Structure formats: structure tokens, C-alpha cells
Amino acid sequence: MKHILVPTDFSKTSEIAIDFAIHAAELLKAKITLLNSFEVAEGSYTDLMGVNREFTNDLINEAKIKLNDLRIGFMKKSEVDIQTAISVKPLADAINEVSEEGKVDLVIMGTLGATGLKTKLWGSHTSDVIGKTKIPVMAIPSDYKWKKPQNILLATRQFERNDEILDYLFEMTFLFSASVKTAVFTGNDQTAEVYVKHQQELQNYAEFLKNEYRDDTLSSVHLIGDSFEETLEDYISKNQVDLLTMITYQEGFWKSLFNPSLTKQMSFHTRIPLLVIPANFSK
Questions:
Q1: Between β-strands 274-278 and 137-140, what pairing exists: parallel, antiparallel or unpaired?
Q2: pLDDT the model gives residue 40
Q3: Disulfide: which of 29, 170, 205, 248 matches 159 by Cβ 3.0-4.6 Å?
Q4: What CATH code is assigned to 3-140?
Q5: What are the sequence ranges of the domains in the chain?
């Protein structure tokens, strides 16, 4: 794990994500690239007159100055190698482009944006990135203070055995000197047969991971309740979980997870960092 990409909109939230990334990079022995991206409105008339091009250049120059000031400020506090990048593409596209060019291993970003409007939450950008990138994304809560992850919870539904995904997670676990606990959820409205099936699969999965990664500290927990989100949130709050890890299979689920308009939205992701690894992840 050598390269961390941190998108920034120069907000307080993104600075918290940068601070987290720097602490993580010190432990992971990684370098950091700060990315600022913004979309430029296209118009045939303004393009013809050169106005749009001039405006874009002004925005780029302003972003360069802000990024450099940000870089210098954080480099005074750490010896981590920090680079900068600018893009005029949508955030998810910009991240994919920089990730491919720079062989990025992890994206770390905040969950709120600079606008402060509920309809413009940085979380919506985060969910968009999660749905479109092929590399792991770690979402950092807007009020989170750095703490080295010691207890990592892997919430699974598929009991993944993909080497690429698991190697990635356990490499991070090793570098953080952390322990992993796997969890599966069974709803109160599900049958006894489903409960027994989940329990057996969870036990088998835990044994598989212990043997595969020679980790005797690994443990498991079977979560039971009416709501997956509320049950998981309750467990996290009572068991000192530092990092929640999930595997993504479809974009729609994650859009709903970060959607602020839901009547009962998940709130645990605003309390601890959330690491999302795409199911199709490949190093």
C-alpha cells in the first residue's frame, strides 16, 4: 500500500480527511496526492469567445495556489511525501483517471462538502465515488479525530474469499497492528433455517480466515435485530469499533446509504471511518 489519494474541496471536512490520511500514510509508509476537481460548464458561445477557457484557467491557477498552500501546511507537520493534482472532470472520473495514472491504492475522503447545504452533501460525492471507482474508498466523518484503527469490523453478506479483497484488508490490518472481527446479520423476520445457515457460514468463514492469514486474534459476531443499519450501529457504539469495512456489489445500495433524504438513514458512518472495497477490486 504505497499511494493514497485524497480529494479536497478546501473545506474543514476535507482537511480532517487529509489529516487522517497523513497519519495513516505514516503507518502504511505511503505517499499522498491531494486532488481538487471541478466541472466547467460548456457553452458554444463562451467557448468561441475564449471566455470559458480563460475562466477555467483562472480556476486552475486558483486551485494550484490553494493546493500548494495546503500541501506546505501539512508537510510542516509530517514527513509524508505529498503531491497535488487538478482535474476539470467530475470527481469520480477525476479519481479514476488519477488512480490509473498514479497507481493509487486507497482513496480517503470526507463525508461533507463546503456548501453546507443538505442537498449538496459531500457524502453524495462519496457515494458517487464508491459506486464508480474500482479501488477501495475510506470515508472519514466530518468531526472525526485521528485514532489508529485497532478494532476492524468486516460486515459481510457474501463471506468473500476473493484473495485480492482479503489480502488488501489483512495487509492494512497488519500495518495498523489491528484485529479483525467478521459479522453477519440475520433479521428477526427471517426463518430459523436462515439463522442456522448464517451461523454455520460465519463459523466456517472465521476458521477459513484464521487459517488463511494465520490470525489467531480474529473473531466473529452474529448480529440479530429488526434493522441491519440500527443493529450494526448499536454494535459499533458498544464495542469500540474503529473501522467498519464492507464490500460493495451494487451502486444502488450505497446511494441509499449516503442519501440524506431517507426517513431512517444509516448514521453509523458519521461516527467512525468506513472502508469500502469493490467486489471487483484487483490490484
A1: antiparallel
A2: 63
A3: 205
A4: 3.40.50.620
A5: 3-140, 151-272
Q: Say if residues 84 and 71 touch (Cβ distance below 8 Å).
A: yes
Per-residue model confidence (pLDDT) at position 249: 76
Q: Which CATH class is domain 151-272?
A: alpha beta
**pLDDT of res. 132:** 76
- Cell match 471566455: residue? 51
What are the φ/ψ torsions at residue 278 (nearest 5 degrees)?
Answer: -65, 140
> Identical fold at 3-140 and 151-272?
yes
Taking the chain (283 residues) in runs of 10, the rounded mean pLDDT of each run is 94 93 96 89 50 74 94 94 94 91 93 44 63 86 91 94 95 95 96 97 97 93 92 92 87 49 38 88 78
The pTM score is 0.85
Query: What distance in Å separates the CA atoms of residue 39 and residue 282, rounded to the nearest whole number?
Result: 29
- For 186, phi then psi, to 5°, come to -125, 125
Sequence letter at residue 115: T
Per-residue HEC secondary structure of the chain comes to CCEEEEECCCCHHHHHHHHHHHHHHHHHCCEEEEEEECCCCCCHHHHHHCHHHHHHHHHHHHHHHHHHHHHHHHHCCCCCCEEEEEECCCHHHHHHHHHHHHCCCEEEEECCCCCCCHHHCHHHHHHHHHHHCCCCEEEECCCCCCCCCCEEEEECCCCCCCHHHHHHHHHHHHHHCCEEEEEEEEECCCCHHHHHHHHHHHHHHHHHHHHHHCCCCCEEEEEEECCHHHHHHHHHHHCCCCEEEEEECCHHHHHHHHCCCCCCCCCHHHCCCEEEEECCCCC
CB 80 within 8 A of CB 26: yes
The pLDDT score that the predictor gives to residue 251 is 52
- Taken as a whole, the chain contains a residue count of 283
pLDDT at residue 70, rounded to an integer:
96
